[in-house]
Design brief:
Helix content is about 35%, strand content about 15%.
């Protein structure tokens, strides 16, 4: 039997046989540790697998969250689209007035246009419009692109001219005052419907996505502008226009013109769209 002595220091060489056995022992120890570690991992993975119940619960939670958030996202998207369409509409009707003014070589003033004469000239400055003729209670066209109206006798015996194509701002009425949209209408290629009031005043009302698309509510997708006596085109509800925001963009008013005064706020107030 051999006696193995390990001598350290003094520059003596390490015993080769001892070194080899130690190496094999360390390797065996490392393999053993590795096997135990792998075994633990396998056991851990088996223990952490999801059960069918857990999967179904997770799917249910995802469904509830989606049901709560998706309608809000869709509503926000629609509001953004309507706001962008309003800006486009304002630009289009303003540019048409600018070209009209350039042709006649003086500002376009409402006092220069007698009853129902404005639309005949104004329509010329739009590309390939579809003429709805008068619209409202005076409609002579049954096109689905146009907004009609009818005369209604109230309980007090007063006859009102109403259009059931649209609702008021707060939806308190499913019809609006048709006298604001019955002096000429025409539809554009992009689907917008332009409606004129030309009785001593000139109002230009735009359904920014067309009468065939919802919500068809004044102050939501229906907006009115006023041609001022100095030739400016202002959004209704702005200072100096005939219908103010407080009374004609109201959550409580039952007036058939409620919503006509919303345009200025819709264009300038960042919080407006989150409230409709």
């Amino acid at each position: 039997m051999q006696t193995m002595i390990e001598i350290r220091g003094g520059g003596a060489p390490e015993n080769k046989l001892l070194t080899g056995e130690k190496t094999r022992f360390i390797r065996k120890l490392s393999v053993s540790k590795l096997c135990r570690q792998i075994h633990r991992c396998i056991k851990y993975k088996h223990k952490r697998a999801f059960t069918m119940a857990e999967v179904l619960i997770t799917i249910g939670i995802i469904g509830v969250v989606a049901a709560m958030t998706i309608p809000g996202l869709i509503a926000d998207k629609r509001r953004t689209e309507l706001y962008n369409q309003l800006q486009v509409a304002y630009s289009l009707i303003s540019q048409a007035l600018t070209r009209m003014s350039a042709d006649i070589e003086y500002p376009v003033l409402p006092s220069n246009y007698q009853l129902r004469t404005f639309k005949k000239e104004y329509i010329k400055y739009f590309e390939s419009p579809i003429d709805c003729e008068w619209g409202g209670v005076h409609a002579t066209s049954n096109s689905q692109l146009c907004a009609g109206g009818s005369e209604v006798t109230g309980e007090d015996g007063i006859i009102s001219q109403l259009s059931d194509s649209y609702s008021t701002y707060n939806k308190s009425s499913s019809s609006i005052d048709a006298t604001k949209i019955d002096d000429g209408q025409f539809a554009l290629k992009n689907g917008m419907l332009i409606m004129i009031e030309n009785m001593y005043k000139v109002y230009i009302t735009v359904d920014v996505n067309g009468v065939g698309k919802s919500p068809n509510i004044w102050g939501h997708d229906l907006f009115t502008f006023q041609l001022m006596e100095d030739g400016r085109l202002l959004p209704m509800g702005a200072e100096g226009t005939d219908y103010n925001y407080e009374d004609y963009c109201s959550k409580t008013s039952n007036d058939k013109s409620n919503g006509i005064g919303c345009t200025y706020k819709a264009l300038t107030d960042k919080t407006y769209w989150s409230k409709i």
